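Researcher: Quick test of sequence recovery. Tokens follow.
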């Protein structure tokens, strides 16, 4: 019988694989749409300027309406959340960590090395002062309570070389 951690790890891994698969197929779809758009643009060159302006205005209106109607759903989307985190994790992996240390140094001085829940932090590692759980922030965000003990006081850990 598998342990709970093993089951959760398997589930998480399956979710990551699914998100990467969807991401890969969506990129292919986007490339195809761009190629079609090139063909449409070539055809649009033959249209009168007034018709093109009308088309662009209508497209802007449709996109604005789509965003307004789906904004709440997008905020609560597990897939988009994972895609967003994956993007930021990839950006973190290619970032010059010494530059981040320098940019975060001023904030560390302002906080006297201690961060509380609700404080704003750039990306980095925080350690809970209550249970010593390490939490990774892969992009700028508000500090949340500790997932393990609900503690609200943290210190920022330096990046390893």
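Model:
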């Amino acid at each position: 019988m598998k342990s709970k951690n093993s089951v959760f790890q398997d589930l998480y891994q399956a979710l990551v694989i699914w998100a990467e698969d969807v991401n890969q197929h969506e990129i292919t779809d986007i490339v195809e749409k761009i190629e079609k758009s090139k063909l449409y643009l070539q055809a649009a060159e033959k249209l009168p300027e007034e018709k093109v302006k009308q088309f662009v205005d209508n497209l802007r209106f449709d996109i604005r309406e789509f965003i307004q109607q789906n904004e709440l759903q997008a905020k609560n989307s597990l897939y988009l959340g994972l895609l967003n985190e994956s993007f930021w994790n990839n950006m973190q992996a290619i970032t010059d960590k010494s530059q981040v240390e320098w940019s975060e140094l001023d904030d560390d001085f302002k906080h006297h090395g201690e961060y509380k829940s609700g404080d704003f932090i750039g990306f980095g590692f925080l350690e809970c002062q209550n249970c010593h759980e390490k939490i990774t922030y892969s992009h700028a965000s508000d500090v949340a309570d500790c997932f393990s003990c609900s503690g609200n006081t943290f210190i920022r850990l330096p990046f390893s070389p």
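The first strand starts at residue 114 and ends at 116.
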